[in-house]
Structure formats: structure tokens, C-alpha cells
Amino acid sequence: MIKKPNSITANKSRNNSQYPVFELKNVTKQFGNLSVVKNINLRVYPGERVALVGSSGAGKSTLINLLNGAIRPTTGEVWVLGQNLAVLKSASVRQIQSQIGTIYQQFHLVDNLQVIHNVNAGHLGRWSFWQAAFSLMFPLEVATAIRALTQVGIAEKLYERCGVLSGGQQQRVAIARVLVQDPAAILADEPIASLDPERSREIIQLLCQLNAELSKTLVTSLHDWEIARNYYRRIIGLKEGRVLFDSPANLVTSEMVDELYK
Q1: How confident is the model at residue 44 (pLDDT cuts 50, 70, 90)?
Q2: Cα distances (Å, whole numbers) of residue 18 to 11, 21, 45, 187, 219
Q3: 89 touches 145 (CB < 8 A)
Q4: How far apart are alpha carbons 26 and 76 in whole angstroms?
Q5: The predicted structure's pLDDT at residue 7
Q6: How far apart are CA 69 and CA 67, in angstroms?
Q7: pTM: predicted TM-score of the whole model, two decimal places
Q8: How confident is the model at residue 2 (pLDDT cuts 50, 70, 90)?
Q9: I want to staple 98 with a disulfide (CB 3.0 to 4.6 A). Which of 44, 114, 125, 147 is the partner?
Q10: Distances from the Cα of 179 to the Cαs of 4, 40, 85, 214, 245, in angstroms?
């Protein structure tokens, strides 16, 4: 790992009165004989805006799925909101996961359903089965959905089917769904990979605005180094499953980037 001054140590010092939102302790993840993430240690503190960058296969998506508890490490510990996921019962893990909103490249929307229903999926972690079923016929929490859609700039799409929306609009619906969930932290796994450059900038600007205005911890995996440098405060470079560097964005040098992508 390349050590640079004022990197994670600066973050730790600045936030030493706070527990990390996420902490990985000597985490390795294997799929069969393939080690995708290798002996990673890192902390992400409340309100941080962190970009995970690296080539395809560097381990970015696997790291996101470790942070949200979708997968478990082969070795090491994943701590989320001060809790070691490995020692929690399933119900407690789900409670922790309800406080972590995840945005995916594929959007994970139901195209045949109206926007209101897709946004309301953000409530499923706290709604009963009967509330969820009733809401499919007579939408609940409409004002909450409108408020979230207004924040992402598409309130007028409330009753349109998701399948007729553009890619950028669908990603905004996915973000609105996370806003309704009201999580402590947002994880975004390649949220702009399927969007054109203009829509990509709009989505990243929106995520960073939510980080700044709502103090939501934001961790985003990205291929695009320039986007990471221009919009994020801290950059973690991943190469072949290892952390190559962990540094404030303004201290990442061209030599570090060349080493990351060569």
C-alpha cells in the first residue's frame, strides 16, 4: 500500500470522537480459490464522501457488498454502525442494513410499476407485509415520495411507469427510494456506469449535494478517476483486491493514478 501524508490518519484524527460508520478489519473475500478482496483495513466516518476507484476486477463492487452486509468476508471482520456483523443474529443484521441505502448500476426498479411504488420500496424495511400489499393498490406515504422526488428533481414523474423513463430518470428514482429509506449512509455501486457523460455528472452532483445537505455518509465506486477527483474528498485506490492508496483527493498524484491503472 502506498502511504501518503494526511490520508486516513487525518480522517481518524479529525473524527476521533466519532465511531466509524464502516470499519473493515483485515478483511479478505474469496469466491472459490479466487481472492477478490485481500486483507483490507479501512474506516469511514460519519459525513465522509469517499470514492472507491480502480479498474474492472479491482474489488470495488465486492467491497460495497461487504459494507452493506450482502456478503460476508472469508476472513476478518466487518463493522457497521459500531456493530460486528459476524456476531449478530439475522434480524439484527437486517436492522443494520435498513440504515444503509445502496444504489446500484442496474437501478433494481420494477419497470411495470409506477414511480410511486418503486420509491415506496424504501419503506419495506419498516412496513408490515399488509402495509406493503395495501400500498400497491392505494399508495401510502405519497407526500414522503413527492418530497423525495422533488429532492432529485422529478416530482412530476410520480405516477409514470418506471419502464418509460430515461436511464438518468430511473437512477433518480433509485436515489429517491434511498431517501425515503432515510439511511445513515449511502453506498453507490457504479451508479453512472450506464449513463452518458452529462447524466453522469448530474447524478454525481446530486449524490454529493445529498451528502453535503443531509450529512449522509457517501461511499461511491467509480471507474472514472476525473469524476472522483472533482467531486469527492477522499479517494481509495483499489488494485487487484488491495488498497493501493487511501488519501485526500487533493493529495492524489498522477504517479499514484498511473500505478493504479497501469
Answers
A1: very high
A2: 11, 9, 7, 20, 17
A3: no
A4: 5
A5: 37
A6: 6
A7: 0.85
A8: very low
A9: 125
A10: 35, 29, 24, 10, 31
